[in-house]
Amino acid sequence: MRLFSEKYRLLTWLSILLIAGFLTTIMASYIVSRDAIRQNVVEQALPLTSDNIYSEIQKDILRPAFISSLMASDTFVRDWIIAGETDPEQISRYLKEVKEKYNTITSFLVSENTKRYYYADGLLKTVSKDEPRDTWFYRVREMKADYETNVDNDMANRDTMTIFINYRIFDYDGKFIGATGVGLTLDTMTEILDSYQKRFHRNIYFIDAHGEIKIAGKSMRNIHGPITKLPGVSSIAKDILNRDVRPTQLEYQHDGATILMSSRFIPELDWYLLVEQDITDDVRPIERVFFINIIVSAIVTLLILALTLFAVNRYQRRLELIAGTDTLTGLLNRQAFEIVFQQAILDSERRRIPLSAILFDIDFFKMVNDNHGHLAGDRILQSIAIITKNALRESDIVTRWGGEEFLVLLKDCPLEKASALAEKIRCVIAGHDFELPASELNLTASLGVAEYAYRETWLSFFGRADKALYQAKSEGRNRVVVSSPEVTATTQ
Fold it and tell me: Can you give the residue range of the structural domain that contains 487?
């Protein structure tokens, strides 16, 4: 009887130890899984979503600012005002074409000399200091910034609430001669936000520089006023209003839920973009798994192992994707580009279509790093990547080949067209304002161009492009040298 009792006592203690060990493992697995989800949202999912939304905003919302900038610097507009506004039909046709071409709700021009307000259908009115609705013009006339974003009623469109981009116009001596710009309706921007929320499953809204909510999607359409009065958000309001163009990751609690937020200041609008995600729904499945594990320990343990393997594989695929991108410029890195290039060669040979490459680097780039530091050099490389992509076709592939050297792969592009694209890149870089001190020359680039020859090795192909680049630099830089198996030519 005593031995029997000791046996069960031993089994009891062993069972307690096993159960305690099992429960500890379950609890640890739950905590690790919960924290992994939170970390994944904080470090990857939310910033990535914010970046994607910001990229969309640059295309859908910031585009009017760029259109207004082009209008303000257009020599036709300035010459027409300076010449005395003798033919109003000319400017009306111009504004109508801008409106129709860029699909804006309105386009306008107000002259400083005559105070006339022109729009697509002609002369709307004459602005006056005594008219409250015209105070915006006199505010724009006195402001120091080149432009402003203003929400106001549009008289030309039945007083529809409109977001105006008001851009200052100067003559060739730097004298203020008027204001021009375009407008988007608030309904248009709200629809844009609704589409973002549907695609990314996040709360998305804009606030101005003072924290006032300006535009929000459907989930927050009934919320108004400053964020300092929003439950939960008020605790991090000061951290949001930091005027930092880089994403700021924040967190607050509301009704027992943990809300993660990514905040980014958009200087072009003088607004903040806020993207929120409630991680409660992401954690809740782990809580259900936790209680199920207590009941069916063995089965759930196998499920956790399977889910963990799935998560690791998914994370590995994400790491492989990240590994194929240059972290500074966002372009393909050299390793990923080689894979794309091999496929492009096979496609070129199979379909017998031309394939060309442009290899270029920035002239005297080392001087930028030496004189202004590597951070300035990094910003310039990022700018080079952006303006190069903008100068090319959507099918063209750009990679950072190394240091300040870039490589462009041009599919279905003969040598002559590749040379023209290279010249376009050279001109864009030479004419771009990289905000270097006035005492220094603008940055320039030297470019080598080559067309792939049938059955040519990739070493020979890139070797010819590299040789052309070297020739461009040796001949004085800031030029394009075109290379082929038979001929080498130079353009400047």
Answer: 334-491
Does the predicted model carry a pTM greater than 0.85? no
Instruction: For tokens 């809300």, name the residue.
Output: 259
| pLDDT tens-digit readout, 51-81 | 777 777 666 667 888 899 999 999 999 999 9
- Chain centre to alpha carbon of residue 366: 27
* CA 327, chain centre distance (Å): 14
* Residue 193 forms part of a structural domain: no
Please return the burial class of 463, using the count of CB atoms within 10 Å of its CB with bins 0-12, 13-18 and 19+.
Answer: middle
Structure confidence by residue, pLDDT tens digits, 431-455: 888 877 654 557 899 999 999 988 8
**120/88 Cα distance (integer angstroms):** 11
The CATH number given to whatever domain includes residue 137 is 3.30.450.20
Among 405, 394, 395, 402, CA closest to 358: 405
Residues 6+ apart with CB under 8 A from 251: 42, 236, 258, 259, 260, 261
Report strand pairing: 355-362 vs 405-411: antiparallel
Domain boundary among 291, 323, 355: 323
Structural contact between residues 62 and 266, judged by C-beta atoms closer than 8 angstroms = yes
What Rg, from alpha-carbon coordinates, does the chain have? 30
Q: How far apart are CA 213 and CA 228, in angstroms?
A: 10
Check whether residue 223 and residue 130 sit in a common domain: no
Tell me how crowded residue 54 is: count the other CB atoms within 10 A of its CB: 18
Interatomic CA distance for residues 77 and 112, integer angstroms: 13
Report the b/e string of 56-94 with b at 16+ CB within 10 A.
Answer: ebeebbbbbbebbbebbeeeebbebbeeebeeeeebbeb
User: Is the domain of 341 the same as that of 461?
Assistant: yes
Residue 248 sits in the same domain as residue 296: no
Residue 105's pLDDT band (cuts 50, 70, 90): confident
What letter does residue 396 receive in the DSSP assignment?
-
Q: What DSSP character marks residue 157?
A: G
Specify if 195 maps to a domain.
Answer: no
Q: Give the count of alpha carbons within 13 A of 290, CB side only.
A: 16
Residue by residue, DSSP assigns 335-353 as: HHHHHHHHHHHHHHHHHT-
Closest CA to 183 of 197, 202, 162, 167: 162
User: Look-up: residue for tokens 């090319």?
Assistant: 392
Cα distance between residue 297 and residue 301, in whole Å: 6
- Claim to verify: residue 300 and residue 157 sit in the same structural domain: no
Starting at the edge strand that comes first in sequence, how are the strands of the sheet with 397-402 ordered?
397-402, 405-411, 355-362, 445-451, 480-483, 488-491
Q: How many CB atoms lie within 10 A of CB 95?
A: 24
Structural domains of the chain, count: 4
Residues 480 and 341 in one domain: yes
User: Running DSSP on this structure, what letter comes out for residue 477?
Assistant: S
